[in-house]
């Protein structure tokens, strides 16, 4: 594994790879690598000849200076974890300094309208402009054939898919299942900042998603379409039952448009259809998205109801509870 810190050097190395006919996969990260990232690197290794992992704590996507300052920076451990992947160790780890990525204050940003204004976008001003811009820069620098992202950042993935399509960026996107701890908590670099109590409290988040899936399954078992309102209530009741957890939002939206499930599809379908975004049959797809603070650590998670694999993975990773919502 070669550590590269400049754009010019990485471009030179990757040009040589391409001259040898090698395809390139990119796994963009903020560092503080956990099993979810490492799973993505293994998947990427199966998708291209050469894998590049980028590690860059991108300041422009943080809305709070304290959050940026507190973000864990663990480069030595990250590189050791990548080396320990053995045959799946990436060929390159790209670790630019901030001045390499932003040599002067940028005047250009990639802004995706609408879908960036809800959920995370409503809570974190400017976050998705920062993400869309840095991911576009990374795509321009690496020019990957394929890029791999985790499903935990569901909205981020919807945004990335949209600007890649809108801007004709020539990259295949692969979104991978969320990797969870034994109690179901989604792996996140931010989990490192939780103490033992916070860690136990945070497990309420996947339990809430489990309650949402259970509510949807009960509806389906009775031949009904899952009702977004009831699904949300099931999740919320589980979340607000525990101590020390400050719910930012629990939303149930259409997974493609991130709009309320009964909103007209309209522009998102490329027309003026008044069909609801998510047709209310038993196989209706609904994204349940949660954001909550445990102390000052903000955690997000989601499950896609109507996606049998995602539902199963969530249920397999969480214990049934004795609540009426399970
Ligand atoms: O998901 C992340 O880790 C970041 O948002 C990304 C995609 C690396 C951009 O900085």
Short recap of the structure:
This protein has twelve helices and nine strands. The protein is α/β, with parallel strands linked by helices.
Strand and helix layout:
Layout: E1 2-4, H1 7-19, E2 24-29, H2 35-45, E3 50-55, H3 65-70, H4 75-83, E4 92-94, H5 98-101, H6 120-123, H7 127-142, E5 146-150, H8 154-166, E6 172-176, H9 196-202, H10 204-221, H11 228-240, E7 245-253, E8 286-294, E9 297-305, H12 308-317
Parallel strand pairs: 1-4, 2-3, 2-5, 3-4, 5-6
Antiparallel strand pairs: 7-8, 8-9
Pantoate (PAF) binds at residues 28-30, 58, 61, 131, 134-135, 153, 156.
Tell me what you see in this structure.
The chain starts with a strand and ends in a 9-residue tail after the last helix. Helix content is 38%, strand content 17%. 41% of the residues are buried. It has a 6-stranded parallel sheet with strand order 1-4-3-2-5-6, with helices on both faces. Strands 7-8-9 form a 3-stranded antiparallel sheet, with helices on one face. The radius of gyration is 20 Å and the shape is globular. It has helices spanning 7-19, 35-45, 65-70, 75-83, 98-101, 120-123, 127-142, 154-166, 196-202, 204-221, 228-240, 308-317; strands at 2-4, 24-29, 50-55, 92-94, 146-150, 172-176, 245-253, 286-294, 297-305. It is built from 12 helices and 9 strands. The structure holds pantoate (PAF). The site of pantoate (PAF) has 10 residues, from strand 2 and helix 7. The site of pantoate has 10 residues, from strand 2 and helix 7.
Estimate the helix proportion, in percent. 25-40%
User: What would you call the structural class?
Assistant: alpha/beta
Strand order of the largest sheet: 1-4-3-2-5-6
Per CATH, the architecture of the largest domain is: 3-Layer(aba) Sandwich
Query: Number of DSSP helices?
Result: 12
Annotation, overall tally of beta strands: 9
Distance between the termini: 46 Å
Biggest beta sheet summary: 6 strands, parallel
Number of domains: 2
Q: In percent, how much strand structure appears in the residues?
A: 15-25%
| Coarse shape | globular
What does the radius of gyration come to?
Answer: 20 Å
Write the CATH fold name of the largest domain.
Answer: Rossmann fold
Rounded average pLDDT: 93
Please, what is the CATH homologous superfamily of the largest domain? HUPs
